[in-house]
Amino acid sequence: MLRTLGRRLLLLGSVGTGAVLANYYDRLDELQYDAASLASPVLRLLDAETSHNVAVWSAAHGLVPRDHKPDPPSLRTMVWGREFRNPIGLAAGFDKDAQAVEGLLGIGFGFVEVGSVTPLPQPGNPQPRVFRLPELKATINRYGFNSQGVDAVASHLAAYRARLDDNPARERGLLGVNLGKNKTSEDAAADYCIGVSKLGQYADYLVINVSSPNTPGLRSLQGRKELEHLVKRVKTMRDSTPWGSRGPPPLLVKIAPDLTEADKSDIAAVALKHNLDGLIVSNTTIARPPEVHDYPCGQEAGGLSGKPLFEPSTKVLSDMYKLTKGKLPIIGCGGVSSGEDAYKKIRAGASLVQLYTGMAYEGPALVPRIKRELAECLARDGLVSVQQAVGADHEGPSQRKASAWRFYWS
């Protein structure tokens, strides 16, 4: 009897200690994110590009919060046979040279996309080239693919992988690599093929970026003839490379929101004909809505991101989901700053969702908040997984179930 009582007291003590530790780590997380939120307005006292560089440096040196809480089970999702612990990712453009992958994943993202990476180093466009529109929670940038080049990025990613190999127990987020072309290159396909050959071994997926408005002539590669030629060459390069037991990294194309109906139809046709693995919808826009047009720096050249981009990018996302008949996973990007925004992207057809400008304004605390709100949206509508919600605005329950299983095994 005394032995049984002792065991019960020991069990209660263990449970109590576990609860105390859980509460301690929860409070520690909250304090870290609170501190980061206080730092965000201070960073915005700097010019936009300097603030961006400081944020990347901070993430690279571990000076950002780390999310210790497990994500809600409803947020786990499978795309391309890869399990994402949650569907919220960081878009390309923040960590251009893969200097801060570990720190950024630690914030709580399910995946991080680095780049755009060009084959040769290039400085990008002259400064100033980033402009804040704080009342609109928007930004205009004309960076122009400033990049340290594929060799430097490959070195950074090799070091990151070595750190992971030294700590195999750590849960790993997934990594996308966004590829660009050099400004003066006359053979765009060759540039993208270099990116595939040198960086593909580190990537959970690869992206052909043909939609930045800041590299002359780049968006013309979205035309049907040009895109078909490009995709065929890059896909041939990828498929002819030995990748080991896991197989080749999925290949996606990132498109602009400023497309005609004919453009969208052509892109969908090329994607289906050549078995692309997915699309990213969308990049920044060259359009200037009235509220942006009237803003003091609203007429600066470059791509507009943030809240004003949400509606147009989600409309293009919905159109591409319909045009591809839900056969391709789509990453929804543009103007996401809440769990409800992410949920709308998913219901419009996104399997995964990315953000960038929202975090620039709200700081790292935005990431756990979006995850929490997204889980609440799913529960509110009686859904137990992200996959059940993909394309829900287009399809009936039976079709959604079929789509979920297709993406799971693809």
From TrEMBL:
Free-text comment on the cofactor: Binds 1 FMN per subunit.
Localisation per UniProt entry: Mitochondrion inner membrane
Enzyme Commission code(s) on record: 1.3.5.2
Residue ranges of every copy of the Dihydroorotate dehydrogenase catalytic domain listed in the record: 75-378
One GO-annotated biological process of the protein: 'de novo' pyrimidine nucleobase biosynthetic process
The species this protein was found in: [Myrmecia] bisecta
Protein name as it appears in the record: Dihydroorotate dehydrogenase (quinone), mitochondrial
Keywords (A to Z) from UniProt: Flavoprotein, FMN, Membrane, Mitochondrion, Mitochondrion inner membrane, Oxidoreductase, Transit peptide, Transmembrane, Transmembrane helix
Any one of the GO CC terms: mitochondrial inner membrane
Membrane topology term: Single-pass membrane protein
HAMAP family for the chain: DHO_dh_type2 (MF_00225)
Pathway terms, separated by semicolons: Pyrimidine metabolism; UMP biosynthesis via de novo pathway; orotate from (S)-dihydroorotate (quinone route): step 1/1
Stored Pfam families: DHO_dh
MF annotations from Gene Ontology: dihydroorotate dehydrogenase (quinone) activity
Catalyzed reaction equations: (S)-dihydroorotate + a quinone = orotate + a quinol
Listed cofactors: FMN
Family in the record: Belongs to the dihydroorotate dehydrogenase family. Type 2 subfamily.
SUPFAM superfamilies from the UniProt entry: FMN-linked oxidoreductases
PANTHER family on file: DIHYDROOROTATE DEHYDROGENASE (QUINONE), MITOCHONDRIAL, DIHYDROOROTATE DEHYDROGENASE (QUINONE), MITOCHONDRIAL-RELATED
